Amino acid sequence: MEGINAKYVSKKISKTRWRPVSSSSLQQPDIFATGSWDNEDNSISIWSIGENGVSIMDDEFEGDPQLVCEYKHNGDVLDLQFLDQDRIVTASSTGAVTIFQHHHNSQTLSVSQLWDRAHHYPCDNAPCTGVVCNSPEIVTVGEDGRIMLFRADQEGVLRTIEKADSSAIHAVTFLRTTEILTVNSIGQLKLWDFRQPGNEPSQILSLTGDRVPLHCVDRHPNQQHIVATGGQDGMLCIWDVRQGNMPFSLMEAHSAEMWEVHFHPSNPDHLFSCSEDGSLLHWETSSNSDTPSFLKGGRNTSIISRSAIAPAGGNQSLINAWLTGDSSKGHLETTHMLPSQMLSVNSLDVLGQCLVCGTDGEAIYVNRHVPI
Amino acid sequence: MEEVDVEPTTTPIPGFDSNQKHLGFVWGPGDILVYETIYKASGGSAGGCPFVHEVRKDEDIYSPILRKLFNESHHIFVGLQRIREDMPSKNKKPQFVSISKNYRSVIRACMEELQQVAVSTQDAALATQYGSQVSILLAVELIWNLCEVLFIDAAPAGSLVLHLLDWVRLHKADVDEKAREVLASESPAEHQAYWDVVISYVLQGRMDEARQVLVKQAALQPAARAMFKLLDNLLMKMPIFNPGETQTLTEFDVKWRHWREEVDRCLQDQSFASNPHLEDICKILVGDEDVLLEHKELLSTWYHFLVTRLLFSHPTVKPTELHYYAQSSMHMFLDTRSVPEPLDSILLAAFEFDIHQVIKDCSIALNNWWFVGHLTDLLDHCKLLQSHNLHFGSNLREFLLLEYASGLFTHHSLWQLAVDYFDHCPEFGRVYLELQIERVPLDTERKALKVIRICEQRQMTEQVRSICKIMAKKALRNNRLGSALSWSIRAKDAAFATLISERFLQDYCANGTFSDLDLIDNLGPAMLLSDRLTFLGKYREFHRLYGEKRFLDAAKLLLSLMTAKIAPRSFWMTLLTDALPLLEQIEVIFSADQTHELMFCLEELTSEKSVPNPDRPMQDEDIETTKIELLRLALARNLAMAIVKERESIEGLVGGWVAGAVVLTGMQPGQPFWRRRQDRDWEPQVIG
């Protein structure tokens, strides 16, 4: 819990995301974006931790983010992703999907593309609940049960899957360049292949009979068949989408809704989750292989970010630590990363050694020394 | 009627002429709605104003900077509530003091930020607004700090004056600024504010700092060196009570009297007569009230005067004696004609240890409940508020917290904080929460889930049900049957689930296909919520089995839907029609027994329907009759085939003599075949 500082920002924070850094420079991220919710005027904001040239050892700047710029956002920010280094895609409770451009020279934000009512009901707004990017493609999901596919450079809609879900879709992630995975409010994971025509998923996974809503999903950065999900009961599920209908492992994590789960993008033996119960957990599984995990793939990507797709060059024959991991045998360690606090941690993001999270207590926490 | 404590303030409503029109109003939790009314008892609708005005008492919760105060103090508040009741009070006190300090540091942080923006803003009106907020926070912190010293820390004689000195020093920090300015100048000793700085230091009891500054002057006047040395010595030797040491209060008192006699002697010797400044300082050291009052400018407030007076005249004052000195200091310091400001009377009430008066006056003077709510809560934890009975609500603490939390709940975003405050109001908190939480506007499912979580954690099942129902209705309005069903399952709302199941079945009857299969196929135990939902799930299962060509299972399920009375009677015809393709299969699917049961169902249905319905068009009636005829035919044919088949299989199994017996005990000619239901439990030993 050392080195973690609260910054009160007078807005409930719904999303926090690091700006991707180029992997060649071995830099730690220093810019992140946040989105607010439930305010009369919501906004997206860009923050900076420490100015360029200031050494990381300088404790004066440690963890105190400075506001760089801010822009009004219509409706709650329900999801937020960096498309690339200077474009941000947001999902709004009004159903709109917006691309914001961050101008580095003038440090301002502007709207570069807006799909109004991308998600909607016949005579009402339907919140857009999730967005995932694989530049230039953008996939969004909503409470209306639709999946939409956009391209950042085109105004029109590339593809719509109507009635993809009978209930609300809560989150989406890319499995491969043409395959996505969605989770919904009745505890199902659905695989969709954009090469297939029609409105049917290629596979449905669920915990039989449980129907516990799922709120978040993340894919293992190197091994695309492994995904982690979290839901209303706060359980962490690890799935192998190649095998069977059942999750590979189920771990008790939080006492209320798990809002986000993320594998560490370059060191996937580490996983992070945050919850409505106000906790932020760091999960570490010790992999038995001698191969350091950074050799398992991801070297060829120019941008390290979870929205980017790692090449399928990872060593698939290695048994993944998450699938062998057995919490009872002590392979898995969990640590609380926040001092006790009561209000929900809505979002987290981790990149390099840096972690940022935002809460309903209107605070942003930054930790620059995550033990990875 | 009780008399009012203060004259109420007037809020003008823009565009409203009170001479000609009248106002109506409605109370809200933190505001009132005001609208124009027509007063005249009869006639003349003079075209009222179309506006409804919202009048807020508290603007502060809309200030982005003050929001930080609310958020951070919420954290401290919850921490305070978690301090265990059964802990010995000796251990609690340091905790309470540290919590009090935490509250104050949050106020200070807020104040500093407000000060910064007040300076940097271009907008003059905004700057004034920030400025006034700063001065309010300043006063709030001043009062809080004094309450901390007097009530929470409850410093005993000796330490009391030291704490009060700290209090004055903290809130009169401009001395340091002036000192820095003087010392940074070219020749500090000749700076016009030089003596002000020295005397200010002495007035605050900061002798070491005063001596350091004095040295500058001494260096300039070598002739008066001895005099400076003497004063320096007096300042240095002034005894200060040290509560940490073993020294008792009496020992300190003796020491202090000795020192004072020494200072007195110097005055009588006229040791400082040649330098009026030094003489003044010396007179201050003996607590000469006239000289102190000559430095009103430097003291600036009566409570500074009080503390300085205590330091030099009564350093061992007991808490119980404070009120006497406070009153006299205030009267001596303030112009007798001027009315004391609210702040003065609040501080005086604190010095008089009248906690209730402090809280009451603060409630009147401040426009929101943040301060009084939190302070009262802390004092209540310190067991300082004897059960002061209100003639309304529960106790004072709870009343103030409820007011504060209700105010937060009117805010579109801060409502979440209010929940924890309601939790810690044992008497009425839950009722307040129950009433408020249902009224939180729900734009997204995520927000609904957060609200539901709050309710579930507190076993507020009624509210959970109501919120789920709101969401279900909303989904239904948007024609999202699946979502609506999910919400009503979560609400365990059987009636609504039945309604939605009906909609699904209607859709099926109209389109011949089911929508939202991903949901209906995965109902699991949730299916049991309502009969209609069970039927929907089972009926869909029948279709699945049929689609998978598992005809035997499908047939069994279809029959059981009717015999177990799961299917509504209105749906039997559809079910029987669904049985048709199964009856027409080349293979025999329904056994003889099952066919009998189907027939029984059909007859039951037709016997009910024998009374012709005048509302139904003849054409429908015809179709229905044809359908029934078709069914009867198919059933009869199937029965024949089934009997033959079953007979064959039995013959094959146990031989002809058994088959003969079966025929004997079996159906009699002319008997309606469905009656065989009663005697179907025949067993082989009958034959014996």
Molecular structure report:
- The complex is a heterodimer of chains A (372) and B (688).
- With 372 residues, chain A is mainly beta.
- Helices cover 1% and strands 48% of the residues of chain A.
- Chain A has a single domain (5-285, 321-367), classed as Methylamine Dehydrogenase, Chain H (7 Propeller).
- Chain A contains 1 helix and 32 strands.
- Chain A is globular and about 45 Å long.
- The relative contact order of chain A is 0.15.
- Chain B has 688 residues and is an all-alpha fold.
- Among the domains of chain B are: 22-51, no CATH class; 163-317, no CATH class; 441-532; 549-607 and 624-647, no CATH class.
- A 3-stranded antiparallel beta sheet of chain B has the order 1-2-3, with no helix packed on it.
- Chain B is elongated and about 140 Å long.
- At the A-B interface, loops of A face helix 1, helix 19, helix 21, helix 23 and helix 25 of B.
Our measurement of the CA-to-CA distance between the termini of chain B, rounded to an integer number of angstroms, reads 100 Å
Radius of gyration of chain B in whole Å, from Cα? 44 Å
Class per helix and strand makeup of chain A: mainly beta
Just give the CATH class of chain A: Mainly Beta
> What proportion of the residues of chain A is helical, as a percent range?
under 10%
What is the CATH T-level topology of chain A? Methylamine Dehydrogenase, Chain H
| DSSP helix fraction of chain B | 55-70%
Query: Count the helices of chain A. How many?
Result: 1
From the spread of the alpha carbons, the general shape of chain A counts as: globular
Average pLDDT of chain A, rounded to a whole number, is 83
Round the Cα radius of gyration of chain A to an integer and report it: 19 Å
Terminal-residue CA separation of chain A: 14 Å
Largest sheet of chain B: 3 strands, antiparallel
Task: Give the helix/strand class of chain B.
Answer: mainly alpha
Q: Quaternary arrangement of the chains shown? A: heterodimer
Function (chain B): Functions as a component of the nuclear pore complex (NPC).
Protein name (chain B): Nuclear pore complex protein Nup85
Subunit structure (chain B): Component of the nuclear pore complex (NPC).
Family (chain B): Belongs to the nucleoporin Nup85 family.
